[in-house]
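Hi Y.,

Following your request, here is the sequence exactly as I used it, all 134 residues.
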Amino acid sequence: MIGRLNHVAIAVPDLAAASAIYRDTLGAQVSAPVDQPDHGVTTVFIALPNTKIELLGVLGDASPIAGFLQKNPFGGIHHVCYEVDDILAARARLKAAGARVLGDGEPRIGAHGKPVLFLHPKDFTGTLVELEQA
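Below is the corresponding structure, written out as tokens. Let me know if you'd prefer a different format.
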């Protein structure tokens, strides 16, 4: 059901500093920051030959990243994102298998302009999973 790894998301306390580390120290191609107000984050994408790294910064008081950073003040891996061909079919299959879809269960438009869903980490060995329609 799942396709390729789309990205690994890392929550960071300082988006500019984290971007500089990837750009200046590791020599990576780093995108400009983009505010995602519907998700309460600012994103920066690091292009890799086989996938992407998504750096997540806090945007607004209701940002879901703020709570994560309170528990992990230096930042850390927040979620992994896998591609699926049909997000509604994937949701139906996962729910039938007992997996919990976060939020209201309806896909939202993610940072790449495509429908996404998040799955409860307790159902996936402690890892928050994002599914993105390919």
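The longest strand covers residues 76-84.

Thanks again,
Q.
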